[in-house]
Amino acid sequence: MNDLPIGVFDSGVGGITVLRALTEKWPGEKFLYLADTARLPYGAKSSDTIEQYFIQNLKFLLKEGVKAVVVACNSASSVLMKKKIPSPVPIFNVIHPGARLAAAATRTGHIGVVGTRATMLSEAYVQAIKELSPEANVYQQACPLLVPLVEENWVDDPLTNMVIYRYMQTLLKHPIDTLVLGCTHYPVLKKAFKNVVGASVELVDSPMGIIAELDGAFDLATEGDGQIDVACTDLTPHLENLFASMLLPRKANSIRLVDLGR
Amino acid sequence: MNDLPIGVFDSGVGGITVLRALTEKWPGEKFLYLADTARLPYGAKSSDTIEQYFIQNLKFLLKEGVKAVVVACNSASSVLMKKKIPSPVPIFNVIHPGARLAAAATRTGHIGVVGTRATMLSEAYVQAIKELSPEANVYQQACPLLVPLVEENWVDDPLTNMVIYRYMQTLLKHPIDTLVLGCTHYPVLKKAFKNVVGASVELVDSPMGIIAELDGAFDLATEGDGQIDVACTDLTPHLENLFASMLLPRKANSIRLVDLGR
């Protein structure tokens, strides 16, 4: 069992920020990364549809054999929080750990959250933070254009900065001192967010959260030669390049196309 | 047979620009619009995956009963051009008619085409235009951010104008006098495109093309009370609003959620 890989899934490339952090922390582990690229993105879709995709992804990973599943997608994690989805291995979502870091980081109790439309609609972060700090004030802002901007690779780009600036205007009317980057694509835009919100606002992201979570729960290999296998439901040359560049300095050992069935 | 609706499909809301033009020209007709919103967008996906979705969409429309199918999606149309997909009713793609209008409009023989990554990779417009005018020079530019910008409803927006301006820089190095808006989302951005390319460049879009095509091929009802029924594979409040606003001044008679099966 301990020799099995850790399964990680996302709709596309966003989860690579989580995968990369996991492989840096535990280079001796094996990882199986599933990207449901045939149906990406999840963030604009309804919770019923995301739940259906979630179950198909989970089935695939369990059939392949994994010792744990990391849901490296906030939109899918927000579904997991509403429904108990049965599984013989532990499933880790990215929302609880992000909420824990945010609740620990805030001094004023005013916390901002940014993410996809699906994650914001679910209010998963609001609920998770309020469970930990009932008196906290949580403000949400959906940023639907940021995923396509990262997927176009317009990072460190004045146009992307302007989009972030616009999305942040409403949030910055509140006295937030902590901002949760509640989408696994956003760590790539951390510098741009920092420039807009300023040094006094602490940023929390999904890779930080999931590392803190797994570090306590599991005994994982910090040394040795691990492995990264990638399965995806669709593959284009553009996606393949994006995968590779986001995973650097690590490289996938294999990449293959799979059919999730129903 | 003549009483059956015309089936129109797209991955999402882009095809509404085509549907609206059809209902304006032939208000007495019935239309069944299928939006594969559970898997949108198609434009970033591989031709194999788009072909699979195409066949499922076609099956659904044929089962419902339609007298013709309009593929109101350039990415899906570009797949149709490579493969003959058998059908008992005529299927109309948006690429041939757009290519015909462009070939007729150009005086210099230099034609630009913009669209999704999938449509540009297929080179469907290049081939279709060169079949009509072998000496034409066709230049392509993929504009992946324009679909998300329209879906965010940032139309008539300085940020969107800047994105279009940036995408057009390479194309405008060529002496084009005609530009094909090769994605059914782009008619919404026609004014912005016009401002960037200037008055001397003629714009051709999918609704113009498909109207010209059907006008010759079919005897359709220009008078009477038609009907618009919408079927979609996923539905969120945001999508429902976007559908409604893009279809104005017409209103859908019904909207329902469907499962395409496999």
How would you characterize the overall build of this protein?
- The structure is a homodimer of 262-residue chains.
- With 262 residues, the first copy, chain A, is an alpha/beta fold.
- Helices cover 44% and strands 18% of the residues of chain A.
- The first copy, chain A, has helices at 16-25, 47-64, 74-82, 95-105, 117-122, 124-132, 146-151, 158-171, 190-197, 206-217, 237-247, and strands at 6-10, 30-35, 68-71, 91-93, 110-115, 137-142, 178-181, 202-205, 227-232, 254-257.
- In chain A, the strands form two sheets. Chain A has a six-stranded parallel beta sheet with strand order 4-3-1-2-9-10, with helices on both faces. A four-stranded parallel beta sheet of chain A has the order 6-5-7-8, with helices on both faces.
- Chain A is globular, with a radius of gyration of 17 Å.
- In chain A, 52% of the residues are buried.
